[in-house]
Every structure is written in C-alpha cells, then in structure tokens.
Amino acid sequence: MDAHARSRMPPPHQTPKLSSRSTPLVPKTPSHMKSPPLTTSHNGNTPHHTSGSISHVLSPKEGGGSTRLKIKSATTPEAKSRLLVKPIPAGVKAQMQRNSNNELLATPSVRLVNRAKTPNYEPTLADEGWMSADSHQVNSNPTMMDFDDYENEMAETEAVLVSVRVRPPNPVELRSDAGCVWTMPEHDQHLLKLAKGTEGTREDRDWIFDRILPPHSDNGRVYGTSARRHVRSAMEGYNAVIFAYGQTASGKTHTLSGSSSEPGIIPLSITDLFSQIRSTPDREFLLRASYLELYNETIIDLLSPSGSSTGAELHLSEGKKGVIINGLTEIAVRSELDVKRLLRSGEDRRKVGATDWNSRSSRSHCVFRITIESRSRNSAVEEPPIGARTPGGRLKTAGDKMTRISTLSIIDLAGSEKHTSSKERNAEGKHINQSLLTLKLVISKLADLASKRNVTHVPYRDSKLTRLLQNSLSGDALISVICTVSPSHLNLAESISTLAFAQGLKRVVLKAQKKEVVDPQALIQQYQNEIAELRAQLLEKETVGGNKNEREKNEAMEKRLNELKSMILTSVTVNSPDMNDNTAMVPPSPAKMKYPKLEYDRPSAELLEELHAEQLHRAELEDEVARLKAELATRPIEPNKEIVTLRNEVAELRLIADDYERHLLEPSRKVRADVEKEFNDKMKNLENQLDSKKIWANRLDENVRFITQENKALEMRCKEAESKVTQIIEFINLALSPSNSNDHSGLLPISEEESDYASSTPPIFNINQSDELPALVVTDDFSPSPLMMGNNGKSTLTLSASKMRATFSQMDLANFNDKFGTLSMSGRGNNNNGLINKQQHNRGLGISNHKMLREESNFALAEIAAGDDDEYY
Ligand SMILES: Nc1ncnc2c1ncn2[C@@H]1O[C@H](COP(=O)(O)OP(=O)(O)OP(=O)(O)O)[C@@H](O)[C@H]1O
C-alpha cells in the first residue's frame, strides 16, 4: 500500500468512519485472502453488510480501469441474498477505493453481480475460488494478496458465516423411498425450501443462508465455501472458529474429519495452513496443537501425556483474557504429518459409540485447536515504536517484534438426538442435548443483544460447552457454522430445528479483531530469545575452547538450538507435504505422547533415567502382549460377519423349507397314504375273492369228481342197459328171423295174467300193423317187461319207452322197417287205425291220420334217441 493510500485509511482496529450513505461491501475479513468474503448478511439485524448504495456506475474507461457499481439497499432478507460479491481472481490485486462522495469503487477484479438480474448466472468453481472437486488438496501456491487496503474499508462487525449442508440419503432413508424433502434451486445457492407437498408440516418458509451445500457437494467444496476464509484469517491473526451443528448422523464428522478418500475440513485446514506458511516468505510461524473433548460435562485432554487411554480431565477458570482451560496440553508441530499424528492419537481416545442412527456416533463435543504465532522476518518493517507498552505492561525494547497470536478452533459437536434404545447412550444424550440447548439459548441471547434488545444475562455458565465457546461467541472470533441436515422426511422436525438454530446464528454480531501485539510471553518470542542466547553462548564457547565436559555441554546446546530452530517455521524450513506418506496415519509412539517436550525442556540425565523407566515399561508391555496373544490363541474364533450372514441365510432357508414341507409335502404324503390304503384295500378284496374262488374251484373239482363218478356209474348202467338191449335186439332179430317166424321161443310167454293185462290194457304203440310181421308194442309202463302178445295171433313185442329209446338208437331202422314194416303208432283216438291209451289222449297227443303218425313216429324215434322219457310226453 502506498503512503498516500495509507494516509487515507483509518488505523488498524479502528472503526472506519463511513458516511451514512456509504456501506461496506463485504463483512470484515482478513486482508490476505485470495477469496474475499462473498455474501452479505441476509439478516436485517446486521445492516452494515448490505445496505450500501453506490450512486453512479462508471464504465471501465471512465474509472481508468475501475468499474463503479451501484448497490441498492436491500430491504428484505430475500433481496439481500441476491447481492453477491464475486471474488477476486487469484493473482489480481484488489483495489477498493472511494470516490469523492465516499462511494465505494471496485476494480473489475471485484465484480458485483446482481443475481436477480442474471438468473442464469452460474458461479463456477474457479469463480468462487473453490478447490477442484476431485483433488482435495489446497492450492499449494496461492497468490497472497496485499489485502490491507481492502481490509481497512471493511466494517468493524461481522456476521457468523452460516452454511447448510444437506447430506445424501443413507440406506435407511433410501429404503423409505420418500426422496429429498429439500429443494435447492441451482441458480440460487442461498435458498433452501421444503419440497411442495411435504407431509407432516406446514412449513413453507424460504430459508436463506450464506451457502446451501446440496447432497452432491464434496468436502473440498465445503472447505472452499465455508472454511478456507476462516483458516486464512487465523493465519492473519484473527481467532477463528469453525463448527458443525446438526442432529445425530447428519454428517458433522464427515464434514469436519472426512475420510481418507474425502478428507474433511480439519485435514484440509492443516494442509492449507502449511501451504500458507510456504507462500509467506516474510514471516515466521510457530504452531501448537491441542485437542480436547467434552464428554458428559467433563473436559478431557485428548493429547495429555498421561498415557491413559482416555486422557486427563481438565478444569476451566476465568482469567483476564476470558475462560482459560488449565493444563491443556499444547504440542508444537513442525509439519502436516505431526498434526495428523496428533489428531490420530486424539481420535483414538475420543468417545464414539453405536446409536440407533449412527454406528460411529460422536458421544462428545470435540475441539481441535491450532494456536498460530507469527512474526515478521523483516525487522525494519514491524519494529514497534520504542517505549510502547507490551500487554504485560513492560516497555517494548528495540528487539521486540509485533507478534500475531491467534487460534483456529474446529469443533465437532455431538449431535442432538432422540431417545435411543441404549441406557448408556441415553445418559450421554441427556448431557449432549442439555449442552446444545444452552448453546441455542446463548445464541438467541446474543442475537437479541445484536438487535439491541434488553438482555440482562447470557447463560454461558450453564454448560461447559458454552463456557468453552464463550470467548469466541462473545465476539472475539470469526465464526463459520456448517449446519448439517438429513434429506429425509424421517428427520424433518430435527432438520427444521437445526435451520431455526442456524437462523438465530445469523443474527449474532461478532467483533473479531486481529491480535497483533508485542508479547514476551509469546512462545515464538521466547524461543527466539533462547535461540539468540544459545547462539551467543556457543559463539563465546567457540572462541574460548574447552574440555570434554564443555564440549558435551556445547553439543547439548547445539542440539537444543537446532530443535528450537526447527520449531520456527518459515517458507524455507517448513516441510513439503508428502501426500503419499502413509505414516501420517500412524499414531505417535506412547513415549513420544507422554513426553512431548522431551527434546528441548529437560536435562539429559533425567531423560536417560526416564528412558530406562520406559524400557522397563516396554518390557512389561511386551510380556503383557505375549500373555494377551496366548489368551487370544485359546479363545474360540469368533465367526466373522460373512459367516454370521450365511448362517442367518441358512436359518431362513430352513424356515422356508419347513414351510414347503408343511404346505406341499404334507398334502402329497397324505395323497400317497390314501392311494396306498386304497390299493391295499383292493388287494385285500381281490385276495378274498381269490380265496372264495379257490373254494369254488375246490368245490367244482369235487363236483367234477362226483360227476365223473356219476358218469362212470351211468356208463356202467348204460353198458348194462346196452347189453340188455343187445340181448333184446338179438332176441328180436332172432324173433324176426324167417326161420323163426313162428318160433316165439325167443319171446317170453305171456302168462295168463299178462295176457289179461295185455287185453285189458291196450298197448301204446302197435308197431307193424301187417299181419305177417310180429307186432312191437311199446307201453308207457317203464318196467322193462317186453311181452309178446298177439291178438291176432301175431307176435307182439312190447317195450317200455325208455327201453325203446335205447333200443331204437341202436337199431337198424331200415332193417327194422323191412322187418316190421312201417312204424306206426296207433291209438284209440278218432283214428281207429292206431292205438293210443287214454292217458296219451288226455295229454293232447292224439294222432289224427296215419301219415302223420308215421312222420311223428320217425320224429319220435329220433327224439326218443336224444330226449328224456318225461319230455317225450
Ligand atoms: N455428505 C456426505 N456424503 C457421504 N456420506 C455422508 C455425508 N454425510 C454423512 N455421511 C455418512 O453418514 C454417516 C453419519 O455421518 P457422521 O458420523 O458424520 O454424522 P454425525 O453428524 O457426526 O453424527 P453424530 O452426531 O452421531 O456423531 C457416516 O457413515 C457418514 O460417512
């Protein structure tokens, strides 16, 4: 800044006297920033930020390269949000000037964009100084701007920078399938609104914040918009606080710590700090880190050398400079690697636990703090005026320099949460919720205070969290808050509560000031003094020479000198970052943790003694490790997750199989049983039938046997009859023979009685009516009593019907006819030619004429041969 310009500027830390018409364009911001503050406040309670008016707009030509812009006063929060100050591109020096009317002029590099008039305006990553999304590294060679001119035009007050980050839906929310309830118009990165038709709320507000970070924003982008400015402010001597606020599992830890693939704000800040040192050759720095957690209202030093796994408890007290944390371990760091190691060891001690919503939930509030001391390396520039007083009241000497002392605090608040299913988690949750409630109350009181409302008491002391933040909240720091919300309707109430808190934060007014003092207590000053002393002593020793003891002392002094020098970081001495160095993730050794100041604070004898003690302790630990290993070897191997999952699957499949068994196999078994039963019944039935048929067959066999016997008997009888018939035939033939025509000797003589009988009982048949032939008489008498009779003196053969049948069948009828003439039957019916007995007549067998009789006789003969006696009649 040239002398002329300087003379126009108000001195540092002095409220710039702006005319009522003039208004600062941007909030107060450290001077060196590549990307000056972007947004104005959206809140009517911080009028300095947006109510400016520049009356006349000059063309670049008119302004000799400067563009004059007019900003109208914004009257509503919505209108205010539409004013966006574009950042100054890297490498371009900002020149903020006022014209004769005290109106603010900007060079073309500081562009003011009325977003309302350029609806399609799309800020690019480069425009906004964001880091590339795929590289999470901070620009290692940023162009440091001479920002003093710019800074001096700024307001004395600053609003909290409030960003809202909506995280992507998690698997549970995806399953609920309701999508994101928040809409974030792409052309307006300040506006957040509930999606139309969201159930369960009447909320219809436009939520306006400094930056809305939609779900696809990565940590690099979040850092660029919401943290980088504060980190660089801290390098410039401002206390800066960055914290994340939101319900549990909304993404606070992801935003601040991130992961190895997507580092969060803390690792990105560290990288940025060291890259700032590398690019600031005219200053030297000393960095110290501390890390504490607030768990169940107890403050625990996560870097304490106590060696315990939890860290030492700390207490707060009030001092002149505000709240002091007594005994907090601060460890000087020389490289990114040092810081990351400390972080890692602190994180190992942090309380995390699984809740119903987050498997690794932070159960405590955590504050990671880097204290930055820096001095100019150019003694000519910043030598304070001789006789000026130091903060302790001591008069400054010509050797004292102005030292900037500031802190960068990054706070991961535990998430506000609902009742959980675990008792321990509930107890923690009570403390967490209580402290967050107090924080809200404090914020609301501070907002009232900023609105000039009557506030008698700000309840900082009601919780340790607000006491820890008291210095920062009461205005001594620049604050950026990243409020994290879930995209899901499942968490709508909590998200709205978070946004209400964020809205309250916007009303808080800060009065952060750069702390640049001559402070002999500043560690960097002490180190420099010691370095100077050691150098002088060594120089003296060199000239004097000395014995062995002296030489050892010299060596020790030299070592100490080198150590001290290594603590003072300059653009030359600071290590270049080695991004591939995996050892960054390795926690420091316990010994190093236990004695952080080992190298430069303590005499060597003491150190040797402690080394010995450490060696003993190490031996003990090795024994313990061996014991634990042995114990581990005897333990049953826990099934790994995959096996457990597979087991569960098997159990499920078993259930399904049982189900199948019940629903499918059971009925089929029943059907089979039914079929088998039916088959068996049929078999039994058939067997019974077979048995009864066998009985029948046996009976039939018996019958056959019986019939066969009968047949045999009948055959016998037939044979007998045949022989008798043969006899008869022989007799007849004999009787018929001509030689014996008168010889009736073959015939049985008819007794007198028989003769009577024959005359009284007419024969049935009177065969052969001719006179020459003997007559054959067949009677219906079954008695085989052939008798000869001759009423006309002729021989008569009388046969019974049954005898006649057997006889005639064997007779030579032709011969018979020759012998006996025509067989005729006669009766006493109406035909006097034949004889028929009364019995036959009664049975209707009367023969009507002779011819018929002959035919009938032939027929009868045949029938007689085949038929039965009875049927014949
Ligand atoms: N922006 C994001 N992108 C991807 N994953 C995210 C994002 N934000 C959060 N997550 C994931 O959601 C889970 C919960 O996030 P995180 O632990 O950061 O929540 P939290 O707010 O810190 O919760 P708590 O208060 O319980 O500690 C983590 O698995 C994290 O990786």
Automatic annotation (TrEMBL):
<feature type="coiled-coil region">
    <location>
        <begin position="604"/>
        <end position="724"/>
    </location>
</feature>
<dbReference type="InterPro" id="IPR001752">
    <property type="entry name" value="Kinesin_motor_dom"/>
</dbReference>
<feature type="coiled-coil region">
    <location>
        <begin position="524"/>
        <end position="567"/>
    </location>
</feature>
<keyword id="KW-0547">Nucleotide-binding</keyword>
<dbReference type="GO" id="GO:0005874">
    <property type="term" value="C:microtubule"/>
</dbReference>
<feature type="region of interest" description="Disordered">
    <location>
        <begin position="379"/>
        <end position="398"/>
    </location>
</feature>
<keyword id="KW-0175">Coiled coil</keyword>
<feature type="region of interest" description="Disordered">
    <location>
        <begin position="1"/>
        <end position="78"/>
    </location>
</feature>
<dbReference type="Pfam" id="PF00225">
    <property type="entry name" value="Kinesin"/>
</dbReference>
<dbReference type="InterPro" id="IPR036961">
    <property type="entry name" value="Kinesin_motor_dom_sf"/>
</dbReference>
<dbReference type="GO" id="GO:0003777">
    <property type="term" value="F:microtubule motor activity"/>
</dbReference>
<feature type="domain" description="Kinesin motor">
    <location>
        <begin position="159"/>
        <end position="508"/>
    </location>
</feature>
<comment type="similarity">
    <text>Belongs to the TRAFAC class myosin-kinesin ATPase superfamily. Kinesin family.</text>
</comment>
<protein>
    <recommendedName>
        <fullName>Kinesin-like protein</fullName>
    </recommendedName>
</protein>
<keyword id="KW-0493">Microtubule</keyword>
<dbReference type="InterPro" id="IPR027417">
    <property type="entry name" value="P-loop_NTPase"/>
</dbReference>
<feature type="binding site">
    <location>
        <begin position="246"/>
        <end position="253"/>
    </location>
    <ligand>
        <name>ATP</name>
    </ligand>
</feature>
<keyword id="KW-0505">Motor protein</keyword>
<dbReference type="InterPro" id="IPR019821">
    <property type="entry name" value="Kinesin_motor_CS"/>
</dbReference>
<dbReference type="GO" id="GO:0008017">
    <property type="term" value="F:microtubule binding"/>
</dbReference>
<dbReference type="GO" id="GO:0005524">
    <property type="term" value="F:ATP binding"/>
</dbReference>
<dbReference type="InterPro" id="IPR027640">
    <property type="entry name" value="Kinesin-like_fam"/>
</dbReference>
<keyword id="KW-0067">ATP-binding</keyword>
<feature type="compositionally biased region" description="Polar residues">
    <location>
        <begin position="37"/>
        <end position="56"/>
    </location>
</feature>
<dbReference type="GO" id="GO:0007018">
    <property type="term" value="P:microtubule-based movement"/>
</dbReference>
